[in-house]
Design goal:
Elements lengths: L2 H11 L43 E5 L3 H18 L3 E5 L2 H11 L4 E6 L4 H9 L3 E6 L7 E6 H6 L6 H6 L11 E4 L6 H12 L6 E4 L4 H13 L5 E5 L4 H4 L2 E3 L7 H7 L17 E6 H6 L1 H9 L4 H11 L6 H11 L1 H8 L11
Parallel strand pairs: 1-2, 6-7, 6-8
Antiparallel strand pairs: 3-10, 4-10, 5-8, 5-9
């Protein structure tokens, strides 16, 4: 081969990379490794829609503490586990019920006392704008009779009607009769408690104490507990006082609708045993929540708060420096065994704060 030919071949080997642009270059992987396809050749896979959809979920935060706590708890769990865009807004029973029935907003009312707005609720249900996802609390009966835990420890049978009758003298002031601390005279429960005593055959065993107001009612209970005095008293849940002190609920007969109607009458000629009436306190959802976000609707169907848990949170809310928001966050941080079944992931801890 001539020298000139060799020089041409050498110069071609030194040609810049750009000179190869007219051809194609195959990049080979390591031995045993297949060539990678160009990135732009892969088909685009759309991200799955979030379980909460893209519409803002507005939750009504009612003025009373338990409903406000539920709103804040649900807001945090929906954001963490369902990627919801949540807006917590102020509300009240009548306005919230009317708005949900007319426009489907707010989307959630976590503690709606439907019996108090029966006409509004019934109209919204008939218009197919709202649904009842479930009960707000694990127990539908909010009222009851209670005894301190130290009394139940000394006389275990006093959590029954027969036990109260047998030990009535221990629940009094030394006159051989017990005391039932009822509610103020102008409350409907005052009349019901008197008729219940008659229905249970306890009117000869217990005197009724009807305080002037809620403050006096709580004071009478606190003073008796402070003295470790056995007492029988009426109260309702959820309530901070039932977490502040230790109490046991008296087992009453099952609710009988006809019998209970008589309990509310000033003249009930023949009262018969019955428990307190259940109160329909529901989690109300706008219809679109079921259609657009069924996973969220299922969450609310499981989200029933036990009374003892709410009682404890209401007690914590009374501590110095505590707010609805801080107590809700404490519940999520410390009470996972309660809320984990709501999200359908038992055993999963709350996501770490970002």
């Amino acid at each position: 081969m001539r020298l000139g030919s060799l020089l041409i071949i050498f110069l071609l080997g030194l040609a810049p990379a750009g000179a190869a642009a007219q051809g194609s270059i195959q990049v080979l992987g390591a031995p045993g490794e297949e060539s990678a396809a160009p990135v732009d050749a892969l088909p685009a896979v759309p991200a799955p829609p979030p379980p909460c959809g893209t519409q803002t979920v507005a939750i009504a935060r009612m003025a009373w503490p338990s409903a406000a706590l539920l709103a804040e708890i649900h807001s945090r769990l929906l954001t963490a586990f369902y990627q919801c865009n949540v807006a917590v807004q102020e509300g009240d029973l009548a306005a919230t019920g009317s708005s949900m029935g007319a426009s489907g907003q707010p989307a959630v009312a976590p503690e709606l006392w439907t019996a108090r707005i029966a006409d509004i609720w019934n109209a919204a249900m008939q218009g197919q704008k709202v649904r009842q996802a479930g009960l707000a609390y694990a127990d539908p009966v909010f009222e009851g009779w209670f005894v301190p835990d130290y009394a139940a420890a000394q006389w275990p049978e006093v959590t029954t009607i027969d036990g109260l009758k047998a030990n009535a003298a221990a629940f009094g002031d030394g006159n051989g009769r017990g005391r039932l601390i009822s509610c103020p005279l102008d409350w409907g429960c005052a009349l019901i408690n008197r008729n219940l005593l008659r229905a249970y055959g306890l009117e000869q065993s217990f005197d009724v104490v009807e305080p002037a107001n809620r403050f006096e009612m709580d004071t009478l209970i606190a003073e008796a507990v402070g003295r470790k005095q056995p007492i029988l008293f009426y109260y309702w849940q959820p309530n901070a006082i039932l977490a502040q002190f230790g109490f046991r609920q008296v087992a009453l007969p099952g609710y009988d609708r006809d019998a209970f109607l008589c309990m509310g009458q000033a003249v009930c000629p023949s009262p018969t045993p019955t428990g307190f009436a259940p109160d329909p306190v529901v989690i109300a959802l706008a219809e679109w929540v079921y259609l657009d976000t069924p996973q969220v609707a299922a969450y609310f169907g499981r989200a029933r708060m036990p009374f003892p848990e709410m009682n404890l949170m209401l007690q914590q809310l009374g501590e110095a420096g505590q707010t609805v928001e801080s107590v809700a966050e404490r519940f999520i941080a410390e009470r996972g065994e309660i809320w984990r079944p709501w999200v359908g992931l038992p055993g999963l801890e709350a996501p770490a704060a970002q």
